[in-house]
Design brief:
CATH superfamily of the largest domain: NAD(P)-binding Rossmann-like Domain
Order of helices and strands: HEHHEEEEEHEHEHEHEEEEHEHEHEHEH
Number of helices: 12
Bound molecules: nicotinamide-adenine-dinucleotide
Number of domains: 2
Strand content: 15-25%
Number of strands: 17
Distance between the termini: 36 Å
Helix content: 25-40%
Largest sheet: 8 strands, parallel
Oligomer: single chain
Length: 352
């Protein structure tokens, strides 16, 4: 590849991402992504890891999420603003970049609002495949906003879920989710309270947005053997579960230094015992022990999942073609003559 080839960076915009998802099929994307994330979690010690860099404000948070496996580097820019929805804006938006470590040149720039929804759902599916009771078929989804359909379809495709029980404090969100999933093959029921929705569910996923210590699930709602994916509590001051649930459950996390700041376990002492998901995958830690145990995936979203998502996307763009070529990197004929490049452009514009 020449220097000028590297100067034009493949760019996947929102329209292109939607076409890619439609061409491949959403459920296939979710299953593939689950496998890419699993592959990267299995080589976890190789990665540079750091809690994401967060800039908090009264309305929300803006975060940068970097990581590298030594060959490739990725970062994501992502926000979380629970009040945005009321202004007609999304709670979460994102974009990100994959780069070559050897040259430092970008390999792919992409929208990541859609890709984040896919990778978050794929990560929940990975945790559920690993930790839920075998034969789990029913999921209760508390919070029916932007992430919810992706979460439901990933659990259907990857974990064999057949029934979906929905609850949201805003009935309009539940109606939207039901309508979007009408042709999915899932048996869908809506409920008026979270208590009713979680009754007899094998799996509970909470994906609500509220920048406060919320209590979406109370301890008395959680029966033996349930697996919980708690993904909405993902920054300081933003949790979904009553602390008593954490005391009864075995808690599984992505990267403890980040989850202790952002996850449900921010409510607990700094030495509260947790198991890292990658250790269960690599066989160095135990997952579910028995059918009565409560397993809880305290998911906050970690940079390696975005790395996996960008790696998956790069492979799809290479396989299927596509990706606009973005003139992102200045490419002077003589690499030391950046100034001269502007001068040559001046002469080109004004030949006289
Ligand atoms: P969204 O604003 O589109 O939807 C959130 C929904 O939660 C809304 O419909 C709202 O009415 C509902 N809700 C709020 N409080 C509730 C309660 N007490 N009970 C039931 N429903 C309630 O947000 P989204 O994009 O779907 O994201 C959901 C959450 O997931 C956010 O908090 C977001 O920050 C988080 N998130 C986490 C990850 C991760 O990796 N863990 C990734 C993306 C988003």
């Amino acid at each position: 590849m020449t220097a000028s080839d590297l100067a034009y960076v493949p760019f996947v915009d929102v329209e292109e991402m939607m076409h890619l998802i439609l061409d491949i099929g959403l459920e296939t994307c979710l299953a593939d992504l689950t496998n890419y994330i699993e592959e990267d979690f299995r080589r976890w010690p190789l990665f540079d890891k750091t809690p994401r860099v967060a800039a908090h404000s009264s309305n929300g948070v803006i975060e940068l999420m970097p990581t590298s496996d030594g060959q490739e580097y990725a970062f994501k820019y992502v926000n979380g603003h629970p009040g945005n929805m009321k202004k007609g804006l999304q709670t979460v938006t994102a974009f990100g970049l994959l780069a070559d470590v050897e040259s430092g040149y970008p390999l792919l720039l992409s929208e990541m609002t859609l890709l984040t929804a896919l990778r978050t759902a794929a990560t929940s599916a990975l945790a559920t495949r690993l930790l839920a009771r075998p034969g789990s078929r029913t999921v209760a989804m508390i919070g029916n906003g932007a992430q919810s359909e992706f979460q439901a379809l990933a659990l259907k495709k990857v974990c064999g879920i057949t029934a979906l029980r929905l609850f949201d404090t805003d009935p309009e969100a539940t109606r939207k989710c039901m309508a979007n999933l009408a042709g999915s093959g899932l048996d869908i029921t809506s409920y008026k309270t979270a208590e009713e929705a979680v009754m007899d569910a094998d799996i509970i996923t909470t994906c609500t947005a509220d920048k406060q210590m919320a209590t979406v699930l109370h301890d008395n709602m959680i029966g033996a053997g349930v697996h919980i994916n708690a993904i909405g509590g993902d920054c300081p001051g933003k949790t979904e579960l009553q602390a008593d649930i954490l005391n009864r459950a075995n808690v599984f996390v992505e990267y403890p230094p980040q989850t202790r700041i952002e996850g449900e376990i921010q409510q607990m002492a700094s030495d509260f015992p947790v198991t890292e998901l990658w250790e269960v995958l690599s066989g160095t830690a135990e997952g579910r022990r028995d059918a009565r145990q409560i397993t809880l995936f305290d998911g906050v979203g970690f940079a390696i999942e975005d790395f996996s998502a960008l790696r998956w996307l790069r492979d799809q763009v290479e396989r299927l073609g596509g990706g606009k070529r973005l003139d992102l990197i200045a490419d002077p004929d003589d690499p030391r003559d950046l100034f001269g490049m502007i001068e040559r452009e001046r002469h080109r514009r004004n030949p006289a």
